[in-house]
Amino acid sequence: MRSSLHPFFGFALLVLPVGCGVSTEDFARAVICGEHDDVRKIIAAGADSSVRFGGDPILLIAAHRDHAAVIEDLVAAGADIDATNNGHTAVIEAIQQNHPDSLLMLIDAGAEIDGIGYGSSVLLLAAELSHQECIDTLLVAKANADRHTSKSWTAAVSRRITGNRMP
Questions:
Q1: What is the C-alpha separation between 104 and 72, in angstroms, rounded?
Q2: Are 132 and 165 contacting, i.e. CB atoms less than 8 angstroms apart?
Q3: What is the number of alpha carbons within 13 Å of residue 130 lying toward its C-beta?
Q4: Which residues contact residue 163 at a Cβ distance below 8 angstroms, ignoring those fewer than 6 apart?
């Protein structure tokens, strides 16, 4: 059975309690749909803002869907801003999906922007994907353009390869 709820998996997931009388699936549904008021109510009822759905931190799912207001609610409730699933963070997800508003919300909340995931810096990832608004957002936030990846590349090298403009 295919799940229509979770964007990353093509199978139904188990419903797990999150400690407030609301299932993880219901919490994830509210996050996926961007139901800001429902997310706030679920958090107020005691839900864990760092809960995982299908292995993904709920914050990563909000970043995937570009729900900046939901990201703000989750972070305010104590979500782990740099939580990962196999090295994948909400920042990486916002960059991959080209969601600069969600990226900015994560940066403003203190997310790591100079880390390396999947052997690449987040600035290099944005450059490789030609996501100029994300590049600009990262540069304004002072992401390290000279940070070396596991391939010893920097964002400046990627700029020359991809033709992206970077100051």
A1: 11
A2: yes
A3: 4
A4: none
What pLDDT does residue 118 have? 56
Amino acid of residue 142: K
The residues near 129 (Cβ < 8 Å, ≥ 6 apart) are 95, 96, 98
Mapped onto helix, strand or coil, the DSSP state of residue 6 is coil
| pTM recorded for the entire structure | 0.78
Q: What type of residue sits at position 57?
A: P
> For the residues 9-14, what does the mean pLDDT come to?
36
Residue 62, Cβ density class (10 Å: 0-12 exposed, 13-18 middle, ≥19 buried): buried
- Domains of the chain with bracketed CATH: 2-6+13-87 (1.25.40.20)
Rg (CA), the chain: 17
Between strands 56-57 and 116-117, the pairing is unpaired
Of the candidates 112, 139, 140, 99, the one whose C-alpha atom is nearest the C-alpha of residue 123 is 139
